[in-house]
Write a structure and sequence with these properties.
Elements lengths: L8 E4 L3 H10 L5 E4 L2 H10 L4 E5 L7 H11 L4 E6 L4 H9 L4 E4 L4 H30 L1
Parallel strand pairs: 1-2, 1-3, 3-4, 4-5
């Protein structure tokens, strides 16, 4: 039996140790890496990214502004924001700009996988519903 094929994920964080951890946690997932929001936006123009996991605090462009730009470019991309900060305003701001999940560092593998699998299931459900709607419309 073949392994499940997951949707592509983009991980954005300016901390190289976080990238190593994500590679370890997300074995079997296609993970693209970026160390800045600006580079991530460029990568998103070239790659079909479905899910973005981004740190909230980064140099130049933070995760909140990055999420805003993602939602302008491709509103269907799902964003999971991560942070080590416990400020509730960050959670509210992240959700207000369109993040669909918010995880607190240190990340636990099970928590991250739960968030990703839930997000992936939502995207697959949306794609199926759209396909069903279009096929009904053609009849």
């Amino acid at each position: 039996m073949s392994a499940k094929k997951h949707l592509p994920v983009l991980f954005v964080d300016d901390d190289s140790i976080a990238h190593d951890l994500i590679d370890h946690y997300l074995e079997g997932w296609k993970v693209h890496h970026s160390y800045s929001a600006e580079d991530a936006l460029e990568l998103m123009e070239k790659e079909n990214i479905s899910i973005v996991i981004t740190d909230i605090f980064m140099e130049e462009m933070d995760g909140i502004d990055f999420t805003k730009k993602i939602k302008i470019l491709r509103n269907t991309v799902q964003v999971i924001i991560i942070t080590g900060d416990s400020n509730m305003n960050n959670l509210i701001n992240a959700l207000d700009v369109g993040a669909n999940d918010f995880l607190v560092k240190p990340l636990k593998k099970e928590t991250l996988l739960d968030a990703l699998e839930s997000t992936e299931a939502k995207i697959i459900r949306w794609k199926k519903a759209l396909k069903d709607l279009f096929s009904k419309k053609r009849k």
